Amino acid sequence: DAVPGCPAVTVAQLLVAALRHRPDRTVIGEVREPESAYELLQAMNTGHRATLSTIHADSALDALHPLTDLALAAHCNLSAGFVRAQVARTINYVVHVERCQEGRRRVTELVRVMGPSPAKNSEAEQGFLIERLYQFAEQKESNHAIYRTAGPHGT
């Protein structure tokens, strides 16, 4: 919350100010505002590598959609295809973390973003081509024991 009598400073403003110092790494907390998402994408597309941020989503693939939607909402003259391509060029990996029933957090998925989707197929319909590198799965047996398996997707 803003301090009474002082103007609020947005994440986008902080990011722009930080980039003037040519940082080696940029860590942004949760991306919630359209301007923050747009500035984050712009920064990563202009050579500011080593950037880390968080966003709420139900899966690694689903994290790309709110980021795209937020960036689209920042400027009315942007096209969805342009922003989707920018997100696909900018984001290399997405790590999805879930809170387990025990209350601990666990990495449940890791995907590599390969690019925007060129054609319609099961994963390309979402707008992005991804390669699942890791996926966590729980399997329940009839005796109510839970067996957890983790490893590269498809093995």
Q: What is shown here, in short?
A:
The chain is of the alpha+beta class and 155 residues long. 30% of the residues lie in helices and 30% in strands.
Strand order of the largest sheet: 3-4-5-6
Arithmetic mean of pLDDT = 82
Count of beta strands: 6
Helical run tally: 4
Largest sheet: 4 strands, antiparallel
Low-confidence stretches: none
Helical residues, percent: 25-40%
Q: N-to-C SSE series?
A: HEHEHHEEEE
Radius of gyration: 18 Å
Strand content: 25-35%
Report the span from N to C terminus.
Answer: 47 Å
Which class best fits the helix and strand makeup? alpha+beta
Q: Which oligomerization state do the chains in this entry correspond to?
A: single chain
Question: What overall geometry do the principal axes of the alpha carbons give?
Answer: globular
Explain how this protein is built:
- The chain is α+β, with helices and mostly antiparallel strands and about 160 residues long.
- About 30% of the residues lie in helices and about 30% in strands.
- The chain is built from four helices and six strands, in the order H-E-H-E-H-H-E-E-E-E.
- The chain has helices spanning about 10-20, 35-45, 60-75, 80-90, and strands at about 25-30, 50-55, 95-100, 105-115, 130-140, 145-150.
Task: Describe the SSE topology.
Elements: H1 11-19, E1 26-30, H2 34-45, E2 51-54, H3 60-74, H4 80-90, E3 93-99, E4 105-116, E5 128-140, E6 146-151
Parallel strand pairs: 1-2
Antiparallel strand pairs: 3-4, 4-5, 5-6
Helix pairs in contact: 1-2, 2-3, 3-4
